Amino acid sequence: MALLQISEPGLSAAPHQHRLAVGIDLGTTNSLVATVRNGISVVLNDEQGSALLPSVVRYPEEGGVQVGISAQARQSADPQNTIVSVKRFMGRGLKDVGEVIDLPYRFVDSPGMVQLRTVAGVKSPVEVSAEILKVLRDRAERSLGGELVGAVITVPAYFDDAQRQATKDAAKLAGLNVLRLLNEPTAAAIAYGLDNASEGVYAVYDLGGGTFDISILRLSKGVFEVLATNGDSALGGDDFDQRIYCWILEKAGLSQLDAKDTRLLLTHARTAKEQLTDHVQIQITAVLSGGELVDVTLTRDDFYEMTQNLLARTLQPTRRALRDAKLGVEDIKGVVMVGGSTRMPQVQRAVAELFKQTPLTNLDPDKVVALGAAIQANVLAGNRSADDWLLLDVIPLSLGIETMGGLSEKIIPRNSTIPSARAQEFTTFKDGQTAMSIHVVQGERELVSDCRSLAKFELRGIPAMVAGSARIRVTFQVDADGLLSVAAREMISGIESAVTVKPSYGLNESDITRMLQDGNQHARDDMQARALREQQTEAAQLLEAVETALRLDGDALLDAQAQARIRLSMDALRDVLNGNDHLVIKRAVEALNQTTVVFAQARMDRSVSNALKGHNLSELEG
Amino acid sequence: MGVEKALRFDEFLPMKSLDFQQDFFQLFELPSRFQIDNAALDQRYRDLQSQVHPDKFSHLSESDQRRSVQWATRVNEGYQTLRSPLARGRYMLSLLGVDTQEETNTAMPLDFLMQQMEWREALQDALQSKDIDALDVLSDNNRQETATLQQQLGRQLDESHDHLAAAGSVRKLRFLEKLAEEISSAYDELDS
User: Fold this and answer.
1) How far away is chain A from the Cα of B191, in angstroms, using its nearest Cα?
2) What domain range includes position A539?
3) Which of A546, B16, B118, B136 registers the highest number of CB atoms within 10 A of its CB?
4) Tell me: the pLDDT tens digits for A195-209?
5) A278 noted as active-site residue
6) A414-438 b/e with 16+ CB inside 10 Å = b?
7) Cα–Cα distance for residue pair A184/A391, rounded to 1 Å
8) What is the pTM for the complete model shown?
9) Is the ipTM, as predicted for this complex, more than 0.95?
């Protein structure tokens, strides 16, 4: 009989080892992880069999972190420590985060990116996202039985540099090797294109929980070429919920709700939105914390009406993308629908009207991005010959630098195929100017103040000369993840100085290292703090008990020498009581216990005999 | 033979066949002419990117990845330069050592300037009256004029080899390109 071969756990039995790689869709509402198994892209489920991990992170008062359904279940009860839709805050300052007043969080304004105050301390959106990614990484490693070589993380195509950098940082913090940041519509196109072997120009309309993307792609002989992309990185299903929420407030005559009631009604609003996909009208019933009853009826028509301008905000970027691609709707062979929000009938109708065709919905709009990302991860990990197809993606927003008068000079225009580099020369404004401040911005607007500020740095040591004669060459390089680095060089008379910057909105390498260490250190610190407090409490209680016992029985039961020994031991404990080392306190407590053993025994004996005096056994038993 | 071995940058992409010193026409294996075969350009672009794109090297060494980014960047730059008639004309002149003086030389024939002023006024009017149809007309006119100038530039570069006249055509085309950008912004504005 042939012996069965059993491979070691985590090792592939195949002759050439399959590298474990996953695609992760880090969504506003839900996140997913998928992988290619036996040549087929599959979404990995959790132990309860669900594929979607709600992108909800809760920091409970008792410590630890909850992610997913358990966190979601507590969002109304504990709104301030339960972070929902954290993706909307990635790489965003406080002023960028719209409708803050209606969100039940305690925001902390900090340079670059907004932070959130929770019971577990101030958290950056990067850290919160990393918690979601950790859960998905664990799920994948358990399911695949080994460590991952890397992951493709998807981002909205319209994410700017700061948002991309924040996403990459979160993945690093979660211990993931990022093979590539992949644009969500492109990922969806891979999932569709490979299934259908399509040729021609396609539009991908991706309306998620918090972001909207439109990409126009040409598919030809295995090449996916993004012709143009546009969108709104702060528009999604959440905004439809908000509209219903505001409508409920108005209808029920409510104002100024607390955090719990806000979250409660937002949750009801979301359910209502989902139900209106299949029903023409629905009842919204909720009891607020003050006991007020909310009971309103919402019709589909009312819902359409109140969200019409949100829809318009998706159609406008769509038309722009078509114009940028120099194409008309008649050139579009198919429209792929991505994102849970495309289930709303009014969205499908609006897209069908614009493109004059029924959009494609044959793949699950929630899963298609993760499935496509997994296919690309499999290629990037080197499991599959990469000759099969090629992705040519673009940057969504122009990159430029600030020039005199606060104007933006574009250096790399939007929709440039990446990787891309462009250099531009600038000169000095004043005679004898020896330093130049370089301000990197992203966006289409003329005024720097209307664009996103990515980084500021100074180039020093420019030789003093007449205004306008220095030659400063600024080079922008955008890599295949769509991430920018900038170098500036002064090129006069052989003197060159160069500086490379990473945009300041992201975290630099040392920040990431620090956060990783802090994470481990904090866990240790927390445990030590708890042990110390426990030990201090125990010591204080012991000291008090011994003190009382000495006062009551010391003279009766102990000689002076024995009493002095106990006093000495008590002083020794008091000396270390306020120190930081719980082990030292513990030893002093044990010493005092040891010293008082005989005394305690004597007191015990005496109280037993005292107790027995004048009582019979039956009384004691009763 | 392992996949990794097969994809080593040096073996895969010998420096003798792809050379940073090559000009874009050489890189794309096209004759150095203004009139080019766009289909051949597209095909060669895809072939090149299939060889050098960072996605082909993501599991290889960092130095391979860096070189891949450099090459892919250069291929993109070359493609964008050759694909756009204006950029292609400007590039051909720069290879010939002719400065197109687009920022400094603002001397334009009077009739061209008059027409430009007329069109800019029409653009402002269309914006103010939110007249999409007027914008369409303007856009069509601009496209036709651009096509005419491109043909002229092609003759100057490929046939008469009149480089100074070609530089003049490049400057005119730059005007028209700016106008096209403004028309596009105007569409955006009317759309919002």
Assistant:
1) 6
2) 511-612
3) A546
4) 656 789 999 999 999
5) no
6) bbbbbbbbbeeebebeeeebeebeb
7) 13
8) 0.79
9) no
